[in-house]
C-alpha cells in the first residue's frame, strides 16, 4: 500500500523503487518513520508518519528528527546533472537552509552511490542512442528529481 501511495518513488531520493521482491524476499523500499520510533513509539503506527524510502537511505538515518519533505513549502536541493552531485540550493532562507542541511546530513543523500545513480539516469536520458535510453515520460516516472532539474536547467530534449 505504501508503494502505491508513493507511486513507487523514494520520498528522499526521488527515484523509482521496484515494488517486487528480490530472491531473498526483500524490497528496495522500506517504511521510513520520519519521527523515529525510539523518540515517539506512538507514532510508529501512524500512517502520517510513514514514508517510502530506499532501504539504503533508511539505514543511514539515525534517531534524529527530520522535517518530512512533504511538509516543506520549498524544494531544498539542486543537482549537477553530469555528476549526479546534490547540493543545498543557494536560494533558500537561512531557516530553510538549516532544514535542508539536516535532511542532507541525516540521510546522507550526497553519498557517492546516490550521485552515481542520479548521473546514470541523466546519462540514459541525454544519450538517446543507448539501448536503455529514457524518454521524457520515462525519466519523469523513474527519476522525478532528475527530471525536475532537467526542466529547471532548460535541458529538456524535444520528442
Derived from helix and strand composition plus strand pairing, the structural class reads alpha+beta
Q: Widest sheet: strand order?
A: 1-2
Order of SSEs: HEEHEEHHHH
The largest sheet is: 2 strands, antiparallel
The helix content, as a percent range, equals 25-40%
Percentage of β-strand residues: 5-15%
Give the overall silhouette. globular
Number of strands: 4
Whole-angstrom Rg: 16 Å
Low-confidence stretches: none
Compute the average pLDDT. Answer: 84
Distance between the termini: 34 Å
Question: How many separate helices?
Answer: 6
Quick take:
The protein is built from six helices and four strands.
Features:
159 residues; 4 strands; 35% helix; two-stranded antiparallel sheet; alpha+beta
Question: What would you say this structure looks like, in words?
Answer:
The protein is of the alpha+beta class and about 160 residues long. Helix content is about 35%, strand content about 10%. It has 6 helices and 4 strands, in the order αββαββαααα. It has helices at about 1-5, 55-60, 95-105, 110-125, 135-140, 145-150; strands spanning about 30-35, 50-55, 75-80, 85-90. The strands form 2 sheets. The chain has a two-stranded antiparallel ribbon with strand order 1-2. A two-stranded antiparallel ribbon has the order 3-4. β3 and β4 form a beta hairpin. α5 (about 135-140) packs across α6. The model has no long low-confidence stretch (mean pLDDT about 85).
Amino acid at each position: 500500500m505504501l508503494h502505491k501511495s508513493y507511486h513507487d518513488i523514494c520520498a528522499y531520493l526521488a527515484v523509482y523503487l521496484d515494488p517486487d521482491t528480490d530472491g531473498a524476499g526483500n524490497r528496495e523500499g522500506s517504511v521510513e518513520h520520519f519521527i523515529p520510533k525510539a523518540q515517539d513509539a506512538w507514532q510508529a503506527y501512524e500512517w502520517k508518519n510513514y514514508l517510502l524510502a530506499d532501504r539504503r537511505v533508511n539505514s543511514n538515518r539515525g534517531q534524529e528528527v527530520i522535517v518530512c519533505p512533504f511538509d516543506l513549502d520549498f524544494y531544498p536541493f539542486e543537482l549537477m546533472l553530469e555528476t549526479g552531485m546534490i547540493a543545498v540550493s543557494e536560494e533558500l532562507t537561512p531557516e530553510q537552509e538549516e532544514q535542508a542541511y539536516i535532511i542532507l546530513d541525516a540521510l546522507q543523500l550526497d553519498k557517492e552511490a546516490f550521485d552515481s545513480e542520479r548521473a546514470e539516469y541523466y546519462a540514459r536520458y541525454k544519450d538517446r542512442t543507448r539501448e536503455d535510453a529514457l524518454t521524457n515520460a520515462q525519466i519523469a516516472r523513474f527519476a522525478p528529481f532528475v527530471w525536475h532539474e532537467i526542466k529547471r536547467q532548460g535541458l529538456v530534449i524535444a520528442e
